[in-house]
Amino acid sequence: DLQICQHRAPTCCTKKMEESYQAAVRRERTQSIQALNFELKYMIVGHITAFQEAFESLLRFAENRTSSLFETAYRPMAKEAAEPVKELFTDISLYILGAETTVESAVLHFFDSLFPLVYSRLINPGITDLSEDYTECLRLTRQDINPFGHYSKNLVTELSKSLWASRMLSQALSLGIEVINSTEHAALSKECGRALVRMQYCPHCQGLTLIRPCVGYCLNVMRGCLASVAELDGHWREFISTLEYLTNEVAASHELEVALSGIWSSINEAILHAQLNGPQLSATVDKVCGQPKQQEGNLSSASIVPVKEVTGTQTFVMAHTSLNNRRREFISYMKRSRTFYASIAERLCDGDLVMRDSSTCWNGEDVV
Asked: What stretches pass through the bilayer (predicted)?
């Protein structure tokens, strides 16, 4: 009653043993593909982790620089500006990790929150009653009167260019892991399962427990079983090319590191621009939002404080170098994996599975 290991000679197998063999080959094939995938997956996961760690380090560095700007140059509003600054960098982080948000919405939301503070603490420091309605009016007016000049839009442009490639790279790496995981659990057809049993276990039914499959026979069986996986070859090569392109884009002229480290400078220029145009802004705001309550006495607007370069360049340079080195190592490895799916059958038939240095091997029917 054997269905797979039928042979003219007497056999020591039963139908139940054949079923056990079919379960075994399914399990073994999954394990062997997982073993092949391990190094590739390890490299990609390692790079995702390293990329995110280096990115978070740069982001914290840029956030600390921006916070230092308010604490040193704009102390009257430093405490209240802390939350908008934190939100800005959280939104940037979420954007890179693939959240449904945009750089433009993150930056403009920050400047919307910043304008009421700049207006009431720097341009008109005598304002005492900053009600919710008045604050909201200032936020909405910011979009119309553009108190920060071209600096807010410039920041959007610079960050969008540099963060786009980083966002795409992050998503591409996650996609790579999904592809590898899906190949590990690809369904094994009934015919493939039978062919694997015939190749690996039918010799046992003849008492030939030490004989192993012939190389050519193994390749034929594995190529048939892995035809759907091998179809990934063209797409995988294209994926590697895209990774290479994105890696070069991230490291190109609009570098992520440079853009992040320059955020504080753009914000500083924007605030200085608003202060210099204080009288015109006040006149327009009074017409739109009305006049808020003022303290008694003549309070002059806060003086403009020139800001020098915020310290911490060494940390930035180290993070920058580390990220660039990791990129180079990673893309070099990934380029070597271009043929991963084209050669998967050859690699599965390598090693202990087949008989290489002997004159006898199993061809699916007999010892040859």
From this structure: none
